[in-house]
Write a structure and sequence with these properties.
about 210 residues, alpha+beta, 3-stranded antiparallel beta sheet, 9 strands, globular
Length: about 210
């Protein structure tokens, strides 16, 4: 990761800071590992033909360290928000994150606020999943073998402005249930209608207990 500054029109606009992230090549993964971190193998890595190029092997990975984990990738989200929830003591970790997913999440936040639902915290319950974690980690009920989580362009989210680890009561009925998730669903659908390049599907489900 390189911290850079982009010089724009100096007379009217200040310098803009940004981070340039280079990828660790996919070829660095050996026997399912990069260093000590275990990712496993992608569905068509050792044979077979993916139905579309989007299900092929990734090009490379973002290396996440204690020093860069809190780097913002957008206004509301940091690198650490999207990490697979396993191997807590193994560093560095490796991550796939599609910028279109970040755009869709930020636009969904904007749409929720336009609908009258202020968002201070949109929690990523599950972001990138390594292939191994997708099969064996956490509550695996309902996970697809070709889950887009393994490709860094899917996430499970909920609004948690009070930080209690639970969905907020978004529809104002003094309950927390699927109806609150449907508020986020409607906002995400509006984003897809406005930005066809971000269409990828939206689903609603109960969180595992």
């Amino acid at each position: 990761m390189y911290r850079l500054a982009l010089k724009l029109d100096q007379a009217t606009r200040p310098l803009q800071d940004f981070n340039l992230i280079t990828l660790v090549p996919f070829s660095e993964k050996q026997n399912g590992h990069i260093g000590l971190y275990y990712l496993g193998n992608w569905p068509f890595e050792h044979g077979g033909k993916p139905k579309t190029p989007e299900y092929g092997n990734p090009n490379g990975f973002i290396q996440v360290t204690p020093e860069n984990a809190d780097t913002h990738v957008s206004a509301h989200f940091k690198l650490r928000d999207f990490l697979t929830k396993d191997q807590p003591n193994v560093l560095p970790k490796y991550l796939l994150l599609n910028p279109k997913l970040v755009d869709k999440l930020e636009l969904t936040v904007r749409e929720l606020e336009a609908m009258g639902h202020p968002v201070r915290r949109l929690t990523i319950m599950s972001g990138f999943r390594t292939p191994t974690y997708n099969v064996h980690g956490g509550n695996i009920a309902g996970r697809a073998n070709l889950s887009r989580h393994m490709y860094g362009d899917a996430s499970d989210v909920f609004v948690d402005n009070d930080g209690n680890g639970m969905m907020d009561d978004l529809n104002g009925d003094h309950r927390v249930d699927l109806r609150d998730a449907q508020v986020i669903h409607r906002a995400a659908e509006r984003v897809e209608q406005k930005y066809p390049s971000l269409v990828g599907g939206v689903g609603v489900y109960s969180a595992p207990r």
